[in-house]
Amino acid sequence: MLIDGNWMTPDEPGFDVINPADGKVLEQVPNGGREAAKQAIAAAAQALKAWSKTTPYERSDILRKAHALMLERKEDLARTMTLEQGKPLRAALNEVQYGADFLSWFAEEAKRIYGETIPSARGDQRFIVSHQPVGVVAAVTPWNYPVSMITRKVGPALAAGCTVVLKPAEATPLCAIKVFECLVDAGLPPGVINLVTALDPAPIGDEFVSNPSVRKLTFTGSTAVGKMLAGQAAANMKRVSCELGGHAPFLVFEDADAVHAAKGAQMVKFLNTGQACISPNRMLVHKNLVAPFTEIMVDRVRKLKAGSGLEEGVAIGPLVNQTAIEKVDNQVRDAVARGATLHCGGHRLTDAGLDTGFFYAPTVLSGVTEDMLIYREETFGPVAAIIEFDEEERALEMANDTEYGLAAYIYTRDIGRAFRIFEGLNFGIIGINDINPTSAAAPFGGMKDSGLGREGSREGIMEYLETKLGGIAI
Ligand code: NAD
Fold it and tell me: Whose CA is nearest to atom 22 of ligand 1?
């Protein structure tokens, strides 16, 4: 933990960080409780006085240094991520780059916190509008993208002049520690960023939503926890932004290139073993393309190698824990029992070398229908669920038939159709013949139960700024 510039080692037994690829303990980290959260918030409140008065240029310099340090330490950060989170090393390296991008992007945005002047109806009056940091920010992040989800919050918060207390996911505190080391080594004064690691998140969450010094809660994780924390924070009039769960539809229209679409669908579905909030959960494929699409998908999925992310050629890492295995398996069994066709996978992997980790075989199901759990529940695992449609309107209706609204994908060669569907989808992020519609420069976030607010882009910094009006009689 890092509180007020001091790194703490556990004085009592800490908690174990487990490698999900083999179930072995990697390290122990301090198990912080409510008291640690209180101290961290007090340190952030104290540090805010000076940090909020620094110039955007000073803040920008530090963020740029932190960006350079993250890239210098890229290999080490990526290796730590593969060990504690499980994704293949190449994917971990990509994530470190993506995570560092937020520091460089917001280092620049710090200098563009513009105000405005507004004409008044009174000749003797002038209006000026300026922005100031919201204050102490409490941040909670998930395990699936354990580096970039941190910088996507801390980057804009620091750029805006806020101070931060962050609680990383209990499964991935080691990545958080390494990201914070980069920020400290870049020259952040004590108390500006604080890290509280904890096995039980509930007391920390309680303190975050009730401590009067916290002015803003930013959360990424499940919809259930996000709704609960947002509700409690709102009761105390704290600003809230949430990036929550998803249930992305992947629409393949009759005029699409089936090969391109199936390759894209396979790549994005099995990225991070399906543990991504923007992972396609339903592949809605036109009836004329279902056969070639399924064939290409199955052929590619059968070749995916599962194993430790440190091994060459591994594409499928472990799931995060036993509960995740059970959730995925339950969805697959339910689908098969209700009539879906299982083309490959559909079971836990227990071959030698994989038996002590949390591996699930990459799975393809077709003939998925609305009565199946997988049609509605977020899977967060390596299962491609193929659903057939025949009319454009019906496809759009099915795509929007979910309480989530994070990401969606469209494959078509008809520009008119691409626009119609883009405009008709109730989702915050839409890939059109593209499986990677994300960047530090682009707004990331969802509609409906997928969240509140946007991260990244020029919008991202606004989440950490208050608007102040001056009305001046001259
Ligand atoms: P989770 O909600 O269980 O945990 C997320 C974080 O919340 C963790 O740090 C956890 O410790 C913390 N948490 C849990 N209960 C808490 C409490 N009572 N008080 C305070 N903190 C608490 O979710 P998860 O299973 O770790 O993550 C997966 C979910 O996150 C998925 O639903 C996924 O879609 C979502 N996610 C969304 C985005 C996005 O940007 N929209 C990105 C990554 C993950």
Answer: 201
Q: Which helix (H) or strand (E) holds 446?
A: none
Q: What global pTM score does this model have?
A: 0.97
pLDDT tens for residues 428-457? 999 999 999 999 999 999 999 999 999 999
- Which residue's structure tokens are 């899977």? 379
Task: Give the CA diameter of the chain.
Answer: 81
Average pLDDT, the chain: 97
Q: What pLDDT does 460 receive? A: 98
Angle, to 10 degrees, between the axis of helix 89-109 and the axis of helix 74-85? 120
pLDDT digits (tens, 9 = 90+) for 420-429: 999 999 999 9
CA–CA separation, 319 and 340 (whole Å): 23
Å from CA of 143 to ligand 1 middle: 8
Residue 23: partners with Cβ closer than 8 Å, 6 or more residues away: 356, 357, 358
Token digits for 244?
């929550």
27-78 pLDDT, tens digit per residue, is 999 999 999 999 999 999 999 999 999 999 999 999 999 999 999 999 999 9
Q: Which two tokens stand for residue 418?
A: 């691409």
From the list 84, 181, 277, 378, the catalytic residue is 277
Q: Tell me the pairing of strands 116-118 and 25-29.
A: unpaired
Q: Ligand 1 centroid vs 307 CA: distance in angstroms?
A: 25
How high is the pLDDT of residue 13? Answer: 81
Banded pLDDT at 12 (limits 50, 70, 90)? confident
For the segment 209-218, the average pLDDT, to the nearest whole number, is 98
What DSSP character marks residue 55? Answer: -
- The protein residue whose alpha carbon is closest to atom 8 in ligand 1 is 169
Closest ligand 1 atom to 145 CA:
43
Catalytic residue among 84, 95, 207, 243: 243
Answer whether 128's CB lies under 8 Å from 470's CB: yes
Please give the structure tokens belonging to residue 82: 């593969």
In short, whether 250's Cβ falls inside 6 Å of ligand 1 is: no
- Report CA dihedral (343, 348, 349, 354) to the nearest 10 degrees: 150
Q: What is the pLDDT of residues 461-470, one digit of tens each?
A: 999 999 999 9
Active site residue 455: no
Give the position, in ligand 1's atom list, of the atom nearest the Cα of 198. 11
Query: How many Å apart are CA 171 and CA 432, to the nearest integer?
Result: 34
Q: Would you state the structure tokens that stand for residue 441, as one six-digit string? A: 């420069």
Is 393 known to be catalytic? no
Taking the centre of ligand 1 as the mean of its atom positions, its distance from the CA of residue 153, in whole angstroms, is 14
Domains of the chain, earliest start first: 2-244+450-473 (3.40.605.10), 248-439 (3.40.309.10)
